[in-house]
Amino acid sequence: MKKLIFFIFFSLFSIIICAQGYTLFLTGASFAAPGNGWFELGCKSLGVKAINRAVSGESIADTANKMAEGTLYSREEFEEMDAFVIMHVHEKDVYNEDRLKNDYKDYSLPFDNSDYASCFDYVIKRYISDCYNLKDDVNSKYYGSKFGKPAVIILCTHWNDSRKIYNSSARKLAEKWGLPVVEFDKNIGFSSNHKHPITGNSFSLIFTDDKQIVHDREQGWHPLHGEDSYLQRRMAAIFAETVRKIFLF
């Protein structure tokens, strides 16, 4: 009987959430690409629509170039999406302000991978600007509003704390713009600072089938894929909890 009551309550709760019609959009590379599972699972648990445009092997430069070309998302998708989630987590400084432009239109295109900070700056400023300008678009539901569409951008850390340059600079970037951060690294359940008591190696290695050297230490690379993967489900929960703090579910 208790199980039946719980099922009914959960079903009604899901219906209420779905009725709110939120849509979340994700850009990123191999840790975010379809097949991982965390983004789709997280959106499913929230009852929101997921649009995943992450592509394995790409970088934030690719996202910036697609935005400039108008191919990252369609006009209809841009109007529909309520949050723009970014998970480009290469071990680069994404905060360095040495070469940033005041106006995103002043950047030379196309971007390459030589300056991740400039690419992030372009993407953030371009998205905020495009959202704001919807207030003057007669074809937008935001036409006539004071601030256009709310520009909700969500940054993600690497899935663990081994990529310290990216994780720390991403937090600085988030603080600069007032952006929420999905803190996978703080909530994933282990730290690269300590070895596994049985294997004697990095904790991350037991959750992956591949590995890489990060700051002279062997670390797990890509967490096992699929919606049944423990890591993907944990990441989904961390992601969903962050989103719940932004929208009134």
Descriptive labels:
alpha/beta, 12% strand, disordered N terminus
What summary fits the major beta sheet? Answer: 5 strands, parallel
Number of helices: 8
The backbone outline, from C-alpha atoms, is globular
**Secondary-structure element order, as H and E?**
HEHEHHEHEHEHEEH
**Strand segment tally:** 7
Side by side, the strands of the main sheet go: 2-1-3-4-5
**Which segments are poorly predicted (pLDDT under 50) over 5 or more consecutive residues?**
2-19
The helix content, as a percent range, equals 25-40%
Task: Give a structural overview.
The structure is a single chain. By secondary structure, the protein is α/β, with parallel strands linked by helices. The chain is built from eight helices and seven strands, in the order H-E-H-E-H-H-E-H-E-H-E-H-E-E-H. The protein has helices at residues 2-19, 38-46, 60-69, 75-80, 116-133, 164-177, 184-187, 230-244; strands at 23-28, 49-52, 83-87, 153-156, 181-182, 211-214, 217-220. The strands form two sheets. A five-stranded parallel sheet has the order 2-1-3-4-5, with helices on both faces. A two-stranded antiparallel ribbon has the order 6-7. A hairpin with a 2-residue loop joins strand 6 (211-214) and strand 7 (217-220). Helix 2 (38-46) packs across helix 8 (230-244). The longest helix is centred in the N-terminal third of the chain and has 18 residues, at 2-19. The radius of gyration is 19 Å and the shape is globular. Residues 2-19 have low confidence and may be disordered.
